[in-house]
Design brief:
Blueprint lengths: L22 H15 L28 E6 L5 E3 L2 E3 L4 H11 L4 E6 L5 H13 L5 E3 L2 H10 L1
Parallel strand pairs: 1-4, 4-5
Antiparallel strand pairs: 1-2, 2-3
Helix pairs in contact: 2-3
């Protein structure tokens, strides 16, 4: 009587199925990880004297569809808190608007900013083909603070 395979035989074969009992646990842990590790962009808190307005409208757009352009009193331009020269505004904003027609440009500046800088920014936006531009005001800021 010969021994088959050295006398040791496997009684049970490996399962062909992937165990799915812990998949929900893994998905839940991944969800928690991404919720904890996600960093949301916050606008820098700027102490400025907002322009006054008698009436204003709420911008009914998602935050990703609003591009904030800050104009400083010395003519510096910040696009979403990143410094950019005035002559680069057209080059940067035109492709964004071409890719997303819902884009709204929110011009934010101090009341004391010379008009020539605002006018120059408007000329750059017109050259870029932007049609939706809003100017942030003191009334809008007070409405935003009340909602939070």
């Amino acid at each position: 009587m010969g021994l088959k395979g050295g006398g040791l035989e496997r009684k049970q074969k490996a399962s062909q199925e992937i165990p799915s009992s812990s998949m929900a646990d893994i998905a839940f842990l991944l969800l928690i990880f991404f919720m904890v590790s996600t960093v949301f962009q916050k606008d820098r808190n700027r102490q400025i004297d907002w322009a006054a307005a008698e009436a204003t409208e709420k911008i009914d757009q998602k935050q990703k569809n609003i591009l904030n352009i800050w104009v400083e009193s010395n003519g510096d331009i910040y696009i979403n808190d990143v410094f950019r020269p005035m002559d680069e505004v057209r080059v940067l904003v035109a492709p964004m608007y071409r890719d997303n027609r819902e884009l709204v440009i929110s011009v934010r500046s101090d009341r004391g900013v010379p008009y020539r800088f605002i006018d120059q920014l408007q000329q750059e936006l017109v050259a870029a083909g932007i049609v939706r531009v809003v100017f942030a005001t003191e009334l809008e800021q007070s409405m935003t603070r009340e909602r939070r």
